[in-house]
Design goal:
The structure holds 2 protein chains of 2 kinds.
Chain A: H1 2-30, H2 34-45, H3 48-88, H4 96-123, H5 126-138, H6 144-161, H7 164-174, H8 186-197, H9 207-218, H10 238-241
Chain B: H1 13-23, E1 27-28, H2 29-39, H3 48-61, E2 64-70, E3 76-82, H4 84-109
Antiparallel strand pairs in B: 1-3, 2-3
Helix pairs in contact in B: 1-2, 1-4
Classes of the chains: A mainly alpha, B alpha+beta.
Chain lengths: 242, 119
Protein backbone atom coordinates (compact mmCIF):
# COMPACT_ATOMS: atom_id res chain seq x y z
CA UNK A 1 0.00 0.00 0.00
CA UNK A 2 2.82 2.38 0.95
CA UNK A 3 4.64 1.66 -2.29
CA UNK A 4 1.48 2.23 -4.31
CA UNK A 5 0.78 5.54 -2.53
CA UNK A 6 4.37 6.62 -3.08
CA UNK A 7 4.16 5.77 -6.78
CA UNK A 8 0.89 7.66 -7.14
CA UNK A 9 2.33 10.64 -5.25
CA UNK A 10 5.44 10.63 -7.40
CA UNK A 11 3.43 10.57 -10.62
CA UNK A 12 1.17 13.38 -9.35
CA UNK A 13 4.16 15.41 -8.32
CA UNK A 14 5.83 14.88 -11.68
CA UNK A 15 2.73 15.91 -13.61
CA UNK A 16 2.23 18.98 -11.42
CA UNK A 17 5.86 19.96 -11.94
CA UNK A 18 5.44 19.54 -15.67
CA UNK A 19 2.30 21.69 -15.71
CA UNK A 20 4.00 24.40 -13.64
CA UNK A 21 6.97 24.54 -16.01
CA UNK A 22 4.72 24.55 -19.05
CA UNK A 23 2.65 27.37 -17.55
CA UNK A 24 5.80 29.41 -17.00
CA UNK A 25 6.97 28.76 -20.54
CA UNK A 26 3.66 29.73 -22.12
CA UNK A 27 3.38 32.83 -19.93
CA UNK A 28 6.90 33.87 -20.93
CA UNK A 29 6.46 33.14 -24.65
CA UNK A 30 2.92 34.40 -25.21
CA UNK A 31 2.76 36.94 -22.39
CA UNK A 32 -0.63 35.77 -21.13
CA UNK A 33 -1.84 35.85 -17.55
CA UNK A 34 -0.89 32.94 -15.28
CA UNK A 35 -4.50 31.67 -15.30
CA UNK A 36 -4.67 31.67 -19.10
CA UNK A 37 -1.23 30.10 -19.32
CA UNK A 38 -2.27 27.40 -16.84
CA UNK A 39 -5.46 26.78 -18.80
CA UNK A 40 -3.60 26.36 -22.09
CA UNK A 41 -0.97 24.16 -20.42
CA UNK A 42 -3.74 21.88 -19.12
CA UNK A 43 -5.32 21.86 -22.58
CA UNK A 44 -2.01 20.89 -24.16
CA UNK A 45 -1.43 18.13 -21.63
CA UNK A 46 -4.78 16.44 -22.27
CA UNK A 47 -6.44 14.03 -19.86
CA UNK A 48 -4.34 14.22 -16.69
CA UNK A 49 -6.23 11.37 -15.01
CA UNK A 50 -5.79 9.16 -18.06
CA UNK A 51 -2.03 9.74 -18.15
CA UNK A 52 -1.80 9.13 -14.41
CA UNK A 53 -3.67 5.82 -14.68
CA UNK A 54 -1.56 4.67 -17.61
CA UNK A 55 1.66 5.42 -15.76
CA UNK A 56 0.33 3.66 -12.67
CA UNK A 57 -0.58 0.54 -14.64
CA UNK A 58 2.92 0.45 -16.13
CA UNK A 59 4.43 0.77 -12.65
CA UNK A 60 2.11 -1.91 -11.31
CA UNK A 61 3.23 -4.30 -14.06
CA UNK A 62 6.84 -3.48 -13.27
CA UNK A 63 6.27 -4.27 -9.60
CA UNK A 64 4.58 -7.57 -10.52
CA UNK A 65 7.54 -8.55 -12.69
CA UNK A 66 9.93 -7.74 -9.86
CA UNK A 67 7.90 -9.89 -7.48
CA UNK A 68 7.93 -12.74 -9.99
CA UNK A 69 11.70 -12.48 -10.34
CA UNK A 70 12.15 -12.44 -6.56
CA UNK A 71 9.94 -15.52 -6.11
CA UNK A 72 11.83 -17.36 -8.87
CA UNK A 73 15.16 -16.47 -7.25
CA UNK A 74 13.90 -17.65 -3.85
CA UNK A 75 12.71 -20.96 -5.31
CA UNK A 76 16.03 -21.48 -7.09
CA UNK A 77 17.95 -20.70 -3.91
CA UNK A 78 15.76 -23.11 -1.92
CA UNK A 79 16.33 -25.83 -4.54
CA UNK A 80 20.07 -25.23 -4.44
CA UNK A 81 20.12 -25.43 -0.64
CA UNK A 82 18.17 -28.72 -0.66
CA UNK A 83 20.49 -30.17 -3.33
CA UNK A 84 23.56 -29.13 -1.35
CA UNK A 85 22.09 -30.60 1.83
CA UNK A 86 21.43 -33.93 0.07
CA UNK A 87 24.93 -33.95 -1.37
CA UNK A 88 26.45 -33.14 2.03
CA UNK A 89 24.73 -36.04 3.78
CA UNK A 90 27.14 -38.94 4.50
CA UNK A 91 26.38 -42.10 2.55
CA UNK A 92 24.02 -44.52 4.22
CA UNK A 93 22.79 -42.02 6.80
CA UNK A 94 20.52 -39.90 4.67
CA UNK A 95 16.95 -40.96 4.18
CA UNK A 96 16.57 -39.12 0.92
CA UNK A 97 19.72 -40.21 -0.87
CA UNK A 98 19.03 -43.99 -0.82
CA UNK A 99 15.48 -43.31 -1.87
CA UNK A 100 16.67 -41.20 -4.81
CA UNK A 101 19.34 -43.75 -5.75
CA UNK A 102 16.95 -46.70 -5.60
CA UNK A 103 14.41 -44.74 -7.65
CA UNK A 104 17.07 -44.12 -10.29
CA UNK A 105 18.12 -47.78 -10.31
CA UNK A 106 14.50 -48.93 -10.44
CA UNK A 107 13.77 -46.61 -13.31
CA UNK A 108 16.79 -47.83 -15.26
CA UNK A 109 15.71 -51.45 -14.66
CA UNK A 110 12.23 -50.64 -15.97
CA UNK A 111 13.74 -49.05 -19.04
CA UNK A 112 15.97 -52.06 -19.60
CA UNK A 113 13.06 -54.49 -19.43
CA UNK A 114 10.93 -52.35 -21.72
CA UNK A 115 13.69 -51.92 -24.28
CA UNK A 116 14.42 -55.67 -24.21
CA UNK A 117 10.76 -56.45 -24.88
CA UNK A 118 10.63 -53.84 -27.61
CA UNK A 119 13.73 -55.26 -29.29
CA UNK A 120 12.32 -58.78 -29.26
CA UNK A 121 9.03 -57.55 -30.70
CA UNK A 122 10.80 -55.60 -33.41
CA UNK A 123 12.87 -58.59 -34.50
CA UNK A 124 9.84 -60.87 -34.46
CA UNK A 125 11.33 -63.20 -31.87
CA UNK A 126 7.88 -64.20 -30.70
CA UNK A 127 8.88 -67.21 -28.61
CA UNK A 128 11.44 -65.19 -26.69
CA UNK A 129 9.02 -62.30 -26.40
CA UNK A 130 6.40 -64.61 -24.98
CA UNK A 131 8.82 -65.93 -22.36
CA UNK A 132 10.30 -62.51 -21.49
CA UNK A 133 6.92 -60.85 -21.15
CA UNK A 134 5.79 -63.72 -18.95
CA UNK A 135 8.77 -63.11 -16.66
CA UNK A 136 8.13 -59.36 -16.61
CA UNK A 137 4.48 -59.86 -15.73
CA UNK A 138 5.45 -62.11 -12.85
CA UNK A 139 8.06 -59.65 -11.53
CA UNK A 140 6.33 -57.72 -8.73
CA UNK A 141 9.25 -55.32 -8.40
CA UNK A 142 8.48 -53.70 -11.72
CA UNK A 143 6.10 -50.74 -11.78
CA UNK A 144 2.61 -51.00 -13.17
CA UNK A 145 3.32 -49.29 -16.55
CA UNK A 146 6.15 -51.71 -17.34
CA UNK A 147 4.02 -54.69 -16.38
CA UNK A 148 1.19 -53.35 -18.50
CA UNK A 149 3.60 -53.07 -21.42
CA UNK A 150 4.63 -56.69 -20.78
CA UNK A 151 0.96 -57.74 -20.92
CA UNK A 152 0.56 -55.99 -24.25
CA UNK A 153 3.72 -57.67 -25.54
CA UNK A 154 2.44 -61.05 -24.46
CA UNK A 155 -0.88 -60.53 -26.21
CA UNK A 156 0.99 -59.54 -29.33
CA UNK A 157 3.32 -62.55 -29.09
CA UNK A 158 0.34 -64.85 -28.57
CA UNK A 159 -1.37 -63.43 -31.63
CA UNK A 160 1.79 -63.71 -33.70
CA UNK A 161 2.36 -67.30 -32.63
CA UNK A 162 -1.13 -68.15 -33.75
CA UNK A 163 -0.69 -66.52 -37.18
CA UNK A 164 -0.68 -68.88 -40.19
CA UNK A 165 2.80 -67.66 -41.17
CA UNK A 166 4.11 -68.54 -37.74
CA UNK A 167 2.41 -71.90 -37.84
CA UNK A 168 4.03 -72.57 -41.21
CA UNK A 169 7.39 -71.51 -39.83
CA UNK A 170 6.97 -73.85 -36.84
CA UNK A 171 6.06 -76.63 -39.22
CA UNK A 172 9.08 -75.87 -41.40
CA UNK A 173 11.37 -75.85 -38.37
CA UNK A 174 10.00 -79.17 -37.22
CA UNK A 175 11.13 -80.68 -40.56
CA UNK A 176 14.80 -79.82 -39.80
CA UNK A 177 15.70 -79.06 -43.38
CA UNK A 178 19.40 -78.60 -44.13
CA UNK A 179 19.35 -75.52 -46.33
CA UNK A 180 22.92 -75.95 -47.52
CA UNK A 181 21.72 -78.99 -49.44
CA UNK A 182 18.46 -77.45 -50.64
CA UNK A 183 19.21 -74.16 -52.37
CA UNK A 184 16.01 -74.56 -54.39
CA UNK A 185 13.78 -73.74 -51.38
CA UNK A 186 15.60 -70.60 -50.36
CA UNK A 187 12.61 -68.57 -51.54
CA UNK A 188 10.41 -70.49 -49.12
CA UNK A 189 12.60 -69.64 -46.13
CA UNK A 190 12.68 -65.99 -47.17
CA UNK A 191 8.93 -65.93 -47.51
CA UNK A 192 8.30 -67.61 -44.19
CA UNK A 193 10.74 -65.33 -42.40
CA UNK A 194 9.10 -62.28 -43.92
CA UNK A 195 5.68 -63.46 -42.86
CA UNK A 196 6.94 -64.24 -39.38
CA UNK A 197 8.58 -60.88 -38.74
CA UNK A 198 5.67 -58.99 -40.22
CA UNK A 199 7.66 -57.68 -43.18
CA UNK A 200 5.85 -57.43 -46.50
CA UNK A 201 6.65 -60.57 -48.45
CA UNK A 202 7.12 -60.58 -52.19
CA UNK A 203 4.09 -61.51 -54.25
CA UNK A 204 5.83 -63.83 -56.64
CA UNK A 205 4.76 -67.00 -54.84
CA UNK A 206 1.31 -67.56 -53.47
CA UNK A 207 0.45 -69.22 -50.17
CA UNK A 208 -0.65 -72.26 -52.19
CA UNK A 209 2.94 -72.66 -53.43
CA UNK A 210 4.23 -72.41 -49.87
CA UNK A 211 1.80 -74.98 -48.56
CA UNK A 212 2.49 -77.31 -51.47
CA UNK A 213 6.25 -77.09 -50.96
CA UNK A 214 5.89 -77.66 -47.24
CA UNK A 215 3.72 -80.68 -47.88
CA UNK A 216 6.18 -82.04 -50.39
CA UNK A 217 9.00 -81.54 -47.90
CA UNK A 218 7.03 -83.27 -45.19
CA UNK A 219 6.12 -86.15 -47.47
CA UNK A 220 9.75 -87.04 -48.09
CA UNK A 221 10.23 -90.47 -46.50
CA UNK A 222 12.48 -90.52 -43.44
CA UNK A 223 12.41 -86.76 -43.11
CA UNK A 224 12.19 -86.92 -39.32
CA UNK A 225 14.67 -89.71 -38.88
CA UNK A 226 17.92 -88.89 -40.50
CA UNK A 227 19.58 -87.14 -43.38
CA UNK A 228 19.08 -88.35 -46.85
CA UNK A 229 19.68 -87.16 -50.37
CA UNK A 230 16.88 -84.56 -50.16
CA UNK A 231 18.71 -82.57 -47.50
CA UNK A 232 16.28 -83.27 -44.69
CA UNK A 233 18.23 -84.10 -41.54
CA UNK A 234 17.50 -85.00 -37.96
CA UNK A 235 19.40 -82.22 -36.21
CA UNK A 236 18.02 -78.74 -36.25
CA UNK A 237 20.24 -76.56 -38.44
CA UNK A 238 20.22 -73.47 -36.22
CA UNK A 239 22.98 -71.68 -38.09
CA UNK A 240 21.34 -71.99 -41.44
CA UNK A 241 17.70 -71.39 -40.47
CA UNK A 242 17.61 -69.27 -37.30
CA UNK B 1 -5.26 31.83 -39.67
CA UNK B 2 -4.11 28.32 -40.24
CA UNK B 3 -2.91 26.33 -37.23
CA UNK B 4 0.80 25.41 -37.30
CA UNK B 5 1.30 22.07 -38.94
CA UNK B 6 2.91 19.63 -36.52
CA UNK B 7 3.23 16.16 -38.03
CA UNK B 8 2.32 13.25 -35.77
CA UNK B 9 5.22 11.26 -34.52
CA UNK B 10 5.67 8.01 -36.34
CA UNK B 11 4.60 5.04 -34.30
CA UNK B 12 7.61 3.57 -32.51
CA UNK B 13 9.87 6.58 -33.01
CA UNK B 14 8.96 8.30 -29.73
CA UNK B 15 10.99 5.86 -27.63
CA UNK B 16 14.00 6.33 -29.89
CA UNK B 17 13.74 10.12 -29.72
CA UNK B 18 13.31 10.08 -25.95
CA UNK B 19 16.41 7.91 -25.59
CA UNK B 20 18.34 10.24 -27.89
CA UNK B 21 17.22 13.36 -25.99
CA UNK B 22 18.14 11.83 -22.64
CA UNK B 23 21.46 10.52 -23.98
CA UNK B 24 22.61 14.16 -24.20
CA UNK B 25 22.36 14.45 -20.43
CA UNK B 26 20.00 13.66 -17.52
CA UNK B 27 16.77 15.62 -17.83
CA UNK B 28 13.24 15.83 -16.40
CA UNK B 29 10.11 15.13 -18.45
CA UNK B 30 9.39 18.72 -19.41
CA UNK B 31 13.02 19.26 -20.38
CA UNK B 32 12.96 16.16 -22.57
CA UNK B 33 9.89 17.44 -24.45
CA UNK B 34 11.55 20.83 -24.87
CA UNK B 35 14.76 19.21 -26.12
CA UNK B 36 12.88 17.24 -28.76
CA UNK B 37 11.09 20.41 -29.86
CA UNK B 38 14.34 22.38 -30.11
CA UNK B 39 16.30 19.54 -31.75
CA UNK B 40 13.64 19.13 -34.43
CA UNK B 41 13.55 22.88 -35.16
CA UNK B 42 10.10 23.36 -33.63
CA UNK B 43 8.61 20.79 -35.97
CA UNK B 44 8.09 17.80 -33.69
CA UNK B 45 6.21 18.13 -30.47
CA UNK B 46 6.09 15.20 -28.08
CA UNK B 47 2.58 15.19 -26.64
CA UNK B 48 2.65 15.03 -22.86
CA UNK B 49 -0.16 12.48 -22.90
CA UNK B 50 2.18 9.98 -24.52
CA UNK B 51 5.46 11.33 -23.15
CA UNK B 52 5.08 10.22 -19.54
CA UNK B 53 3.75 6.71 -20.24
CA UNK B 54 6.64 6.25 -22.69
CA UNK B 55 9.15 7.42 -20.08
CA UNK B 56 7.69 5.02 -17.53
CA UNK B 57 7.76 2.21 -20.07
CA UNK B 58 11.46 2.85 -20.74
CA UNK B 59 11.99 2.97 -16.99
CA UNK B 60 10.30 -0.41 -16.63
CA UNK B 61 12.43 -1.93 -19.36
CA UNK B 62 15.59 -0.77 -17.62
CA UNK B 63 16.63 1.61 -20.38
CA UNK B 64 16.33 4.58 -18.01
CA UNK B 65 16.76 5.27 -14.33
CA UNK B 66 15.04 8.10 -12.50
CA UNK B 67 15.94 10.08 -9.42
CA UNK B 68 14.52 13.14 -7.72
CA UNK B 69 16.87 16.15 -7.80
CA UNK B 70 16.77 19.92 -7.55
CA UNK B 71 16.60 21.52 -10.97
CA UNK B 72 18.18 24.85 -12.07
CA UNK B 73 15.02 26.73 -11.11
CA UNK B 74 15.45 25.35 -7.57
CA UNK B 75 12.44 23.13 -7.99
CA UNK B 76 12.33 19.43 -7.19
CA UNK B 77 12.03 17.33 -10.37
CA UNK B 78 12.41 13.74 -11.46
CA UNK B 79 15.48 13.40 -13.66
CA UNK B 80 15.83 10.57 -16.14
CA UNK B 81 19.21 9.10 -17.03
CA UNK B 82 20.20 6.60 -19.70
CA UNK B 83 21.53 3.19 -18.62
CA UNK B 84 23.96 0.97 -20.53
CA UNK B 85 21.02 -1.11 -21.77
CA UNK B 86 19.30 2.07 -22.93
CA UNK B 87 22.40 3.15 -24.84
CA UNK B 88 22.54 -0.24 -26.56
CA UNK B 89 18.86 0.01 -27.45
CA UNK B 90 19.40 3.52 -28.79
CA UNK B 91 22.25 2.35 -31.04
CA UNK B 92 20.15 -0.54 -32.31
CA UNK B 93 17.12 1.60 -33.00
CA UNK B 94 19.26 4.26 -34.69
CA UNK B 95 20.69 1.73 -37.13
CA UNK B 96 17.22 0.30 -37.79
CA UNK B 97 15.91 3.79 -38.39
CA UNK B 98 18.75 4.51 -40.84
CA UNK B 99 17.87 1.36 -42.80
CA UNK B 100 14.19 2.28 -42.80
CA UNK B 101 14.92 5.84 -43.93
CA UNK B 102 17.10 4.60 -46.79
CA UNK B 103 14.40 2.17 -47.88
CA UNK B 104 11.72 4.87 -47.80
CA UNK B 105 14.04 7.24 -49.69
CA UNK B 106 14.52 4.58 -52.37
CA UNK B 107 10.77 4.12 -52.69
CA UNK B 108 10.04 7.82 -52.82
CA UNK B 109 12.82 8.66 -55.26
CA UNK B 110 11.70 6.11 -57.84
CA UNK B 111 10.38 7.88 -60.92
CA UNK B 112 9.61 4.96 -63.19
CA UNK B 113 9.35 1.25 -62.67
CA UNK B 114 11.86 -0.93 -64.52
CA UNK B 115 10.23 -2.78 -67.43
CA UNK B 116 8.94 -6.28 -66.83
CA UNK B 117 9.69 -6.27 -63.13
CA UNK B 118 6.12 -6.49 -61.87
CA UNK B 119 3.52 -9.07 -62.52
Amino acid sequence: MIGRRNARTEIDEEIMDHLARETERIAAEVGSTPEEARESALQRFGEVEHVRLECLSILRWRRWRRTQTKVACLLLAAGAVVAMWIAAQPRGQSRIQPAVTSAVIRQSADKRVESHLYRLKRHGAWDELFAASDDAMANRGLPAPTRAYAVMCQIEARRALLRPEQKMWTRFESLHVDLSQRPDIEWLVRKLRAGRTGATPTKRRSSVDITTTLLSLASVPGSRRGSDSTGVCRRRPRDSVG
Amino acid sequence: MKPPRTPDLLRGTLDMMLLKAISLGPMHGHGVASRIRVMSGDVLDAQEGSLYPALHRLLTRGDLVAEWKQSDSNRRARFYRLTAAGRRRLNREQSMWADMRNAIDCVMSTRRLPQGDIG
